[in-house]
Every structure is written in structure tokens, then in C-alpha cells.
Amino acid sequence: MLTALLNDSTPVLAVLISASHDLTKVYGFVDSITEEAGLVVCTSQGTPSMSSAVVSVSIEDCKFSMGTAPDEAAELKYGDTSLHVHLPSGARLTLFFTAKPSPK
Asked: How many CB atoms lie within 10 A of CB 75?
């Protein structure tokens, strides 16, 4: 799923909640997924240093789970799908996005 988000340039809302419950939100795109930088979400596509906001987390030893929007209002606001990354530190990164195709 992460590779599809990266390759398809799917817009995401990244919500990072630290173990101490600090909250960070970034609207953007999955910019890269590497061992060195981890999962990187940027506000604009391209070089992360050119973006105004970046969220980067190591995905080593993380647990992943998927979710769907509980209702139509949540789907319209955040997207129909969520990918949860549970970090060993107790922090959690959730990517909200729309996975189902738009009607033509």
C-alpha cells in the first residue's frame, strides 16, 4: 500500500501522534520510503527540502494496520481509507487517503 501511495502520488493527510500525545498534521504526498530516511510525507511533491513541511518516521520494527472511514462524513473529510503505522516508541502515524476510484 505504501508503494502504491508513492507511485500514484495519492494525496494524504498524515497525522503523527507521539507517545506523549503531541499531534502533527501534514497534508501532502508520500515522498519516499527508504531504510535511511524511513517514510517521508511532504507538502509538495519532489525534494523534501523544498517542502514547507515534512513528516519522517523510521518504519523499522513497526506494525501496520488498515482502516476504513466509519461514515460518509468522515470519508468526505479525510478519505475512505487509513493506513496506521504503530511505531516501537508508542507513537502512531496514520495516513488518511481516498483509495477507491472516483466515478467518471
From this structure: 16
